[in-house]
Structure formats: C-alpha cells, structure tokens
Amino acid sequence: MAVNSRLASLGTGPDARVLGTMEITVLDPAKRGVYSYDAKERCEQIVRYSPLPRDSLREEIEGLALAAHRALECRDAARVDVRLDGKGRPNFLEINPLPGLHPTHSDLPMLAAQEGMRYEELIQCILDSAARRTQHTPR
Predict the structure, then answer these.
(1) Is 61 among the domain residues?
(2) Residue 24 belongs to what domain range?
(3) pLDDT tens string 40-95
(4) How far apart are CA 76 and CA 132, in angstroms?
(5) Is the dihedral of CA 101, 102, 105, 109 positive or negative?
(6) Does the global pTM surpass 0.85?
(7) Count of domains for the chain
(8) Assigned domain for 139 exists
C-alpha cells in the first residue's frame, strides 16, 4: 500500500490535471521512511520510486491533490505530497507550486518521464499553460 505519494499537477484552474502519481519508499532503515533532503540527494541508493496502480485509492489520492491544486490557486505546474494515515486514508501534506525541474533528479520531471512525457514536452506544457493564463502567444 502506498504510504508516501508524490503527484505532478499541470495547468491552472479548471484546466488543471494530474499528470502522474508515484509512491516513494525510502529503503534505508535508519531513515525510518522519511524522504529527507539526504534521501533525495542519495535517491539512487536508498529510494525506490514506483508508479501507483490505477485503482480507487489512486483515484482518491489524485482527486485530493487536484482539489488542493485548485483550492490554493496554483498555476501551470506543481508537485503535491500526500500521505496515508493509519487507516489508509489519504491526507494532503503540502504542495510545491515552484517544483524542481532538474531533468533527471527532480520529482516533477521524474513523474513526467514515468508517464511517458519527455522533459521538453513537460517544459512546453508549463509554458503553454502560462501563455494561456496570461493570454500571450507562445513563440
């Protein structure tokens, strides 16, 4: 069962959508499952990233994340963290409206890659959303 989930959300307002969802498992017992700065820096050695199966739990997690994205009026792209409580219910933890965009080391691009989206497509999607929102014509 997914305990720590990260989601990528793209778009603004009613056009917002969830791009992908992954479970994060910290394999180092000394870290007690905490996805800390150190765990992120050593992710290749001590973290397993897994796509969540498409089921009712994933739908509930994604619905919560999308509702948070819209309620907090996030724009263009965000990364959402959700954790299950002791009864397996998803709880919103935080949203990062300015997520990292390092092509191979940041969660948002990793989620995009997991969903089959190339890095360039992700950046273009974010730019297109900003252009629509500000009514600018993309180059």
Answers:
(1) yes
(2) 4-134
(3) 888 889 999 999 999 999 999 999 999 999 999 999 999 999 999 999 999 999 99
(4) 10
(5) positive
(6) yes
(7) 1
(8) no
